[in-house]
């Protein structure tokens, strides 16, 4: 299975993307999600198949989400949490 896929980036949150089938566009994306997403801007268009390598997403999962819900949401990477810094204590 291959589909022409458009990927939109969010104008509100960095590294937040919505994948859609070009044939459907953003019509199947819930209105509440679009309000939070902000003004969509096309970031990328490509032919998506199960064999297509994607940098951060599983193409099979993207295809499944497109078929069942009409879109795939790619969330920003989780912020790395560093260990708290405790300065050395001169007092014991």
Query: How many helical elements?
Result: 2
What do we call the CATH topology? Answer: NE1680-like fold
Q: Low-confidence runs (pLDDT<50, min 5 residues)?
A: none
Instruction: Identify the CATH architecture.
Output: Roll
CATH superfamily: YcgL domain
Instruction: Please state roughly what percent of the residues sit in beta strands, choosing from under 5%, 5-15%, 15-25%, 25-35%, 35-45% or over 45%.
Output: 25-35%
Helix fraction, binned, reads: 10-25%
Amino-to-carboxy terminus distance: 67 Å
Shape: globular
Number of strands: 4
**Secondary-structure element order, as H and E?**
EEHEHE
What structural class results from the helix and strand content?
alpha+beta
Task: Give Rg in angstroms.
Answer: 18 Å
- Major β-sheet strand ordering: 3-1-2-4
* CATH level-1 class: Alpha Beta
How many structural domains can be distinguished in the coordinates? 1
Average pLDDT over all residues: 87
The description of the largest β-sheet is:
4 strands, antiparallel
Descriptive overview:
- By secondary structure, the chain is an alpha+beta fold.
- The chain has one domain (2-74): YcgL domain (NE1680-like fold, Roll), CATH 3.10.510.
- It has helices spanning 31-37, 59-68, and strands at residues 2-9, 17-21, 41-49, 72-74.
- A four-stranded antiparallel sheet has the order 3-1-2-4, with helices on one face.
- The radius of gyration is 18 Å and the shape is globular.
- The N and C termini lie far apart (67 Å).
- The model has no long low-confidence stretch (mean pLDDT 87).
């Amino acid at each position: 299975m291959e589909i022409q896929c458009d990927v939109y980036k969010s104008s509100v949150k960095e590294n937040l993307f919505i994948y859609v089938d070009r044939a459907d566009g953003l019509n199947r994306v819930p209105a509440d999600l679009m309000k939070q997403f902000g003004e969509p801007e096309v970031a990328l268009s490509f032919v998506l198949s199960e064999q297509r390598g994607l940098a951060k997403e599983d193409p099979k999962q993207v295809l499944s989400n497109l078929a069942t819900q009409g879109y795939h949401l790619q969330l920003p990477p989780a912020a790395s949490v560093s260990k708290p810094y405790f300065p050395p204590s001169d007092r014991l």
